[in-house]
Write a structure and sequence with these properties.
Number of helices: 14
Strand content: 5-15%
Helix content: 40-55%
Strand order of the largest sheet: 1-3-2-4-6-5
Number of strands: 6
Shape: globular
Distance between the termini: 48 Å
Oligomer: single chain
Bound molecules: uracil
Radius of gyration: 19 Å
Length: 274
């Protein structure tokens, strides 16, 4: 069978699966099936790709131009979470109380991506449970979203950076494959990235978050909206108006993509002038 035939089959399986399980279509998964013959040839010459290695990083960067990591059908959120809890690939693991794999529903409408756990998250092993988490929950709730109902919340790095500093390059480089695998399994309809670190890594840019926020991008064909990090909003209340604009934009986009969400939020969208 040719790679193109296999890609077409996978596309139709995904279409059927998405329609049956959630009522919305999220057909972004890019498979990289090869022709049977080509695959055998490749086997003889290909180097193994170590997650988080330079080779893997190169694959990730070129992802939007066509080379996609091959989706592992046996991967699961539980398996990834187990590996995260056992991980000692960077210096953050030595100081953690708990790793924080993430939480929420599988097949979410929205995957929220923060930077890394803080002290509260490290103590509990859960994402966004401190003050910033309280604000994040309110932001989500304002447009009919929650981690219990239709979101999954994760971070770029899964262990707490000391003194809440930004994750360093080597730390995010060895950790990012966990998030990539979570995305492959979760198949979120859209991604909401919080703050400069998260947007910068996913979009491979150094642009400031003030410039990035509010404008829709693509991450591996998934619509991605960067917005301010709730910790920043707690420090500068004036920015909340911009964050509300972003949440309204997210709400409108979800209503276009998911008839179920559109129906559930119909009244809310009228009353909140979305
Ligand atoms: N800030 C983050 O970026 N992530 C968390 O989980 C908590 C605070």
């Amino acid at each position: 069978m040719t790679g193109s035939q296999k890609n077409t089959l996978a596309y139709f399986f995904d279409l059927a699966d998405a329609s049956l399980s959630t009522g919305y279509h999220n057909l972004y998964t890019k498979y990289a099936f090869q022709d049977d013959a080509a695959k055998n040839d490749a086997k003889k010459t290909a180097d193994p790709v170590i997650p988080g290695s330079t080779i893997d990083q190169e694959n990730r960067k070129s992802d939007d131009s066509g080379t996609a990591p091959v989706f592992d059908a046996d991967d699961s959120l539980e398996k990834i979470a187990g590996e995260i809890r056992m991980c000692s690939a960077c210096k953050l693991s030595a100081q953690r109380k708990n790793a924080v794999p993430g939480e929420g529903i599988s097949r979410p409408l929205v995957l929220v991506v923060g930077e890394g756990p803080g002290a509260d998250e490290d103590a509990l092993g859960r994402p966004f449970v401190g003050r910033a988490g309280g604000l994040l929950d309110k932001m989500l709730e304002s447009i009919g979203l929650s981690r219990e109902k239709n979101c999954f919340i994760a971070n770029i790095v899964k262990c707490r950076p000391p003194n809440n500093r930004d994750p360093e390059n080597d730390e995010s480089t060895v950790c990012i494959h966990f998030l990539e695998r979570q995305i492959d399994v979760l198949k979120p309809l859209v991604i909401l990235s919080l703050g400069k670190i998260s947007a910068g890594l996913l979009l491979n840019t150094n642009e400031s978050i003030s410039r990035l926020r509010g404008s829709w991008k693509l991450y591996r064909r998934i619509p991605l909206l960067p917005t301010f990090h709730p910790s920043y909003l707690l420090r500068d209340e004036h920015q909340k108006a911009f964050a509300w604009e972003d949440m309204k934009s997210l709400c409108r986009r979800l209503a276009e993509l998911s008839p179920l969400y559109a129906a559930e939020t119909a009244e809310l969208r009228v009353s909140r002038k979305i």
